Amino acid sequence: MRILGIETSCDDTGIAIIDVKKQDLKKYFKILSNKIHTQVEIHKEFGGVFPMMAKREHGKNLVHTLIESLKDAKMYKKSEDKYSNKKKNKIKKILEREEELLENFEKIVFCIEKPDIDKISVTIGPGLEPALWVGISFAKALKELWGIEIIPVNHMEGHILSVLVNKTKSFILDKNTISFPTISLLVSGGHTELVLVKNFGNYKIIGNTRDDAAGEAFDKVARMLDLPYPGGPEISKLAEKKREQNNSIKNITFPRPMMYTKDYDFSFSGLKTSVLYKVKDIVQDQGSLDKNIKMEIAKEFEDSVVDVLVYKTIKAVKKYKAKNLIIGGGVSANNMLQKALKLKIKREKIKTKLYIPTRELSTDNALMIAIAGYIQKGKKNKSLKAIGNMSL
Ligand code: KG4
Ligand code: ZN
Q1: pTM
Q2: Does residue 125 line the site of ligand 1, with CB under 6 A?
Q3: Going by CA atoms, what residue is nearest to atom 21 of ligand 1?
Q4: What is the rounded distance in angstroms from the CA atom of residue 102 to the CA atom of residue 110?
Q5: How many CA atoms lie within 13 A of 127 on its CB side?
Q6: What is the 276 CA–ligand 2 centroid distance (Å)?
Q7: Is ligand 1 within 6 A of the CB of residue 233?
Q8: Integer distance in angstroms from the first to the last C-alpha of the chain?
Q9: Which atom of ligand 1 is nearest to the CA of 189?
Q10: Are strands 12-23 and 2-7 parallel, antiparallel or unpaired?
Q11: What are the angstrom distances between the C-alpha of 227 and each of 211, 222, 232?
């Protein structure tokens, strides 16, 4: 079975193609292509993602990303435009709100041969609704053109499954790959969730953020320090430098919000405000923030986020006797978070295996959506509608 995955939930336009073969209870996955077109440079200027701008960029980029992905998978073949006017009119209707996408679709997609693909999987949520809709409409138009069934996918399930991929182009999934129960910590720009994974396709959210997501806090604090978007990697770089220096000038500390509450929830809004007050104090005191102070704030902020994430995640691992711990989402690429989790598991001799996605797959991509499509196939179909706050 060949699946084409489409991802447009935030600011990355992704198209990936996988091939899956089933044999003797084993599933053999082959990655045929995984293309991503990031909008970071455009959103950088504004310090964050604007939904309507993201939508427009997806509309501009989807067809080109599809072509690149087909070429990589050696599935691209030009052909004459042989589609009926009836079909074309239906596609026009599907894409009536996506002007640029329709234009590219008519010019380019009508003139390629139907690729050897069996299903299309597309992210329907959670994410920015206008951005999600572009991907869904694109999937619908391809379905109309090529007669291929669509599998709606939850983006967060994609993040969980992204750890199945190693650094090579293929992997095997069998009953020994991941043991259950598993705990998954999903940390991105929009989410901070602890998920109990009873099996693939069977999820229970046990903890959530009450306000800002971890990645959002990184991005907001970065803005306070005049660092570019996305803020996570920038803060992390400064924090790392400070740790190398191993000295403190201001003795700054920040709180560990909700660390010891009985539940598995998080809150980062108060922490963000603490940083803001600290920044204001320092600016009032000495006129501006110098590099050294920025480094110290970055380190203390990162330590605080990591402490809380690690504490609650390990608490969940112990409580549910999780055989594996999967982390995913943009913030899972954070060095300090990875180090601290490994250290805690080792020190406390916890019997759980930690799975970390490759850096490339920690952030948004369509490969994880194609894989989630395979896992989801055959399930009762959710409706093909964008659901901004979709839950697992
Ligand atoms: O999963 P993702 O690509 O998109 C969403 O679905 O939100 O995550 C993006 C988020 C951003 O907030 C970014 O600042 C954060 O992940 N991020 C990091 C790191 N790399 C990306 N945060 C902390 N440390 C990092 N190394
Ligand atoms: Zn994501």
Answers
A1: 0.95
A2: no
A3: 330
A4: 11
A5: 34
A6: 26
A7: yes
A8: 25
A9: 7
A10: antiparallel
A11: 22, 5, 10
